[in-house]
Amino acid sequence: MMTIRGWLILVALVLFGGCAVPVAAQQPALLAGAEAVIQRADTLAANHDYDGAVLLLKRAIEEYPTYERLYLDLAVCQEDRGYLTHDHFPTVDEWRNELYDHPGQYSGIVRDLFDIYGQAYMNLPDTREIHKRAEALAANDFPVELGEYGVLALPGDPTPFSFMLTDPQLDDAQRTACQALITLRPLPTPERYRKDPKYGSDAKWNTDAKYGRWSFSWMLAGYEFDRESKSWYLRFRVFWEDVPGHRDDRTLLAQQTVQLLLRTNGLLHAYTGLKPLFPKDGVINVWLAERGDPGGEASDENIYLQQIGVARSPAEWVREITHEYGHETLPPVGGYDKPEWAANGRLGERLFVSWFMRNLDQKTDPHPWLRDMNLADYQEARIERTIRQFAAMGPEMPQLSGKNAMAMDGCIGMALYWDLSRGSKALTAVLSSMHSPSFAGKFGFKEVLEENERTAQSVDHPTVAVRMDGLPPGIPLWVYLREGAWDGAFTSKAEGPLRLKVEVDGKPVKFTEAGVFSVTGLGRGWHRIRLTPDGDAVPALTGLKLVRIK
User: Fold this and answer.
1) How far apart are CA 204 and CA 216, in angstroms?
2) Stated pTM of the model
3) In this structure, is residue 194 part of a structural domain?
4) What CA–CA distance (Å, rounded) separates 477 from 468?
5) Which label site among 27, 365, 465, 470 has the fewest CB atoms less than 10 Å from its CB?
């Protein structure tokens, strides 16, 4: 049976097109040649020519790939290069402390070191010494960035997995297999993460019965692979407490949590291109707490899942995690009194599940939460009902500018409507361009959306394309149009003539069986298009194309 490390090497070979060199006995000529290179490299390093030493050793590894001392000497030279960034010549411990205190400044050095160890894993018959050094390098923190082979040297049995994005509305380059991995084996939590930054670092919680004295003993790490740079990036650290008698189920929960987050992260990239709002290095910490209040919480670059021993349904786990990830990644529309200040959590849970559904084969999906969710109920209760609420009110309804739960749901419904009818890129353009985290304030969500539409329609004959196949059936369509006369044409999956009655702003318009209508004298602003079947059958409409004619 192939080991986890063996599978990882196989994945690396497929991803990078590399080839492992067959392990051979160390012949006398190899020994002599490799040792001669090491002596020359040591001489260069002694004269502080670390770049020359590194280049020499890298070339030697291509010629003598099964000689362990070359890798070890190269690693030492790479660490020595790190010393040159200091005002004085530090000790190894001082350098490593600097490395972990300022990970961005030294990320290139860490990446190189793990790449060296990763190549050694692919070529050496005995990697015990390499393993020991890699464990020591990751003892204080896991590296944020890894090169092509550095992931092979990660401790914790790094285990790759992939997931497909198949939504035909995505660009061709985005419909692909996304590569990710988690460290499958629990690892002792580094000292700096034993206490969480909110409840563990603030003295006021020290004596609190519900939130005080949390101590996180174990961790997993989750990485995503970037094909363009051929690099792995740390995206999630998951920490949990040691609970005797529950170690296996807590480990399983951590594994399922980081896998779901990595897949949610892949959806975020594909549909929006957004990055997390708070962490400088792109890494979000997830704290699985035994106490607290049941549910989730987001604080800076941290997600808390509390009272994890309380049973949840698969849908509730997905909802909690995607809700908090929405707070971490989606620009907020806020100012609400209830149920919480910002809408991006509730919007996130609906958007991410909607995107999951477009790319999910639920019968065969390996993740138990996604496989066992009642997606039809979720679609009706949390997505379609919210869109219907917005469509019934319309974007100009004064209640949408309120601060209560109805106003928040109306805003979320409008965002979901825009995502389904105009595309996720159009929604992202609005969220990313807001000047104010408000619905209708100074350059808030609604104002930016309208300005984007005005800008797009500033050409002589603007076109507005509305997707309809993902919208709840029977709802009115809301479009923002510039003044003038417009032609509209529907598309349908059904063959034959379209028999519909069409109203624009409550007034009937002439509609042909070819699916075309015209309307004149429109003022600039929001317009409602209502459709009713002219007969018993409701046509399966897929889209509406509006073109301004004058």
Assistant:
1) 19
2) 0.90
3) no
4) 9
5) 27
| Distance separating the N- and C-terminal Cα atoms of the chain | 71
User: Domain range for residue 524?
Assistant: 458-550
Question: Is residue 355 a contact partner of residue 320, using CB atoms and an 8 Å limit?
Answer: no
Structural domain count, the chain: 2
CA distance 152 to 462: 53
In a domain, 514, yes or no: yes
Instruction: Find the helix packing angle between 445-456 and 405-422, rounded to 10°.
Output: 20
Is the four-CA dihedral 517, 519, 524, 529 of positive or negative sign?
negative
- Assign residue 533 the CATH number of its domain: 2.60.120
Q: What phi and psi values does residue 520 have, to the nearest 5 degrees? A: -120, 165
Look at residue 18 in the predicted model and tell me its pLDDT. Answer: 52
- What are 281's two structure tokens? 């290095």
Inter-residue contact 375 to 350 (CB < 8 Å): no
Q: How far apart are CA 251 and CA 219, in angstroms?
A: 9
Measured CA angle at 116 (ends 59, 238), to 5 deg: 160
DSSP lists the bridge partners of residue 532 as 501
Cα separation of 100 and 116, whole Å?
Answer: 19
Last residue of a domain, one of 89, 122, 153: 153
Backbone angles phi, psi at 91, to 5 degrees: -75, 170
Picking from 490, 523, 530, 540, the residue whose alpha carbon sits closest to that of residue 509 is: 530
Count other Cβ atoms within 10 Å, centred on residue 77: 25
C-beta atoms surrounding 466 within 10 Å: 19
> How sure is the predictor about 539, in pLDDT bands with cuts at 50, 70 and 90?
confident
Q: How many residues does the chain have?
A: 550
- Asked if 517 and 453 count as a contact pair (C-beta separation under 8 A), the reply is no
Coil vs helix vs strand at 454: helix
Q: Which residues contact 279 (CB under 8 A, 6 or more apart)?
A: 300, 301
Q: Which two tokens stand for residue 359?
A: 């790319």
Residue where a domain terminates, one of 124, 153, 182: 153
* pLDDT digits 0-9 by tens, 321-338: 999 999 999 999 999 998
Residue 185 lies in a domain: no
213 domain-assigned: no
